[in-house]
Amino acid sequence: MDEQKAALRRTIRAQMKALTPEERHESDEALFARFLSLPAVERADTLLLYCGMGAELDTLRLLPQLIARGKRLLLPRCADAPGIMDARVYDPSLPLVRHRYGMLEPGPDRPVVSPGEIDLVLVPGLAFDRRGYRLGQGGGYYDRYLPQTKAFTVALCRSCFLLDAVPREEHDAPVDLVLTEEETFGPAAL
């Protein structure tokens, strides 16, 4: 299973890099508009987002719009232990720091928020399937974090990375909702 996932990750990453900046921007715009119009986003007071990197979605563009709506925003920060993260309060007046893996995260002085306080999590992934299962980056951070929260989970997936089936293991759990540029999938979409 690990080799199958690793091969699929390499394929998806290559396809992501092949997208033009215009294709990425157009896709991001459609996905962000759909995300911001979700009733679950409107109801949520505290949201855990992530900072996309490289050819991933430019999720930093969502932050000002959500702050303007009065949302409390959190971003993940990787702990010193492998595969462990926590959710830290995002403050737009403070710079984000770059983790050794390349992603931006809040500084170590930012307050940690309990998983039980989170209403909605925007879950990253390289690819998703129609049932809500995801192919992550391979570090297991979200696999370990998500069982700690009862938050509604949403994923944004470019339609070209929506697969018929994502290889999964027994511990894998689907996100509640997968949005592509034009369609909605996952357990909460039924």
TrEMBL record:
Keywords: ATP-binding, Ligase, Magnesium, Metal-binding, Nucleotide-binding. Gene3D superfamilies: NagB/RpiA/CoA transferase-like. Its cofactor is Mg(2+). It catalyses: (6S)-5-formyl-5,6,7,8-tetrahydrofolate + ATP = (6R)-5,10-methenyltetrahydrofolate + ADP + phosphate. Coiled coil: none annotated. It is an enzyme of class 6 (ligase). GO terms for molecular function: 5-formyltetrahydrofolate cyclo-ligase activity. The keyword Nucleotidyltransferase does not apply. The keyword Heme does not apply. InterPro entries: FTHF_cligase (IPR002698), FTHF_cligase-like_sf (IPR024185), NagB/RpiA_transferase-like (IPR037171). Its EC number is 6.3.3.2. Belongs to the 5-formyltetrahydrofolate cyclo-ligase family. This is 5-formyltetrahydrofolate cyclo-ligase. The lineage of its organism: Bacteria, Bacillati, Bacillota, Clostridia, Eubacteriales.
